[in-house]
Write a structure and sequence with these properties.
single chain, 67 residues, mainly beta, two-stranded antiparallel sheet
Length: 67
């Protein structure tokens, strides 16, 4: 199984938890109730660093990781 990241953030867009991608013998995420979150597809954030969340559009603010 492949599982994307679960990103939990606050009302200002600060990220508190980012589980990262996982594959193999992993369980699906248990989604939080009452907390804002974004769940990504596996590989969606490859080569990217998540900086924050734009709370107006509920989208991730990312930057490319320079190799």
């Amino acid at each position: 199984m492949q599982r994307g990241s679960l990103i939990i953030y606050d009302n200002e867009g600060k990220i508190w938890v980012n589980t990262g991608d996982a594959e193999g013998d992993v369980l699906p995420h248990t989604l939080p109730v009452g907390l804002p979150y974004i769940e990504t597809e596996f590989g969606q954030l490859k080569g990217k660093r998540v900086l924050s969340v734009d709370v107006t559009t509920k989208t991730l603010v990312t930057e490319d990781i320079v190799q």
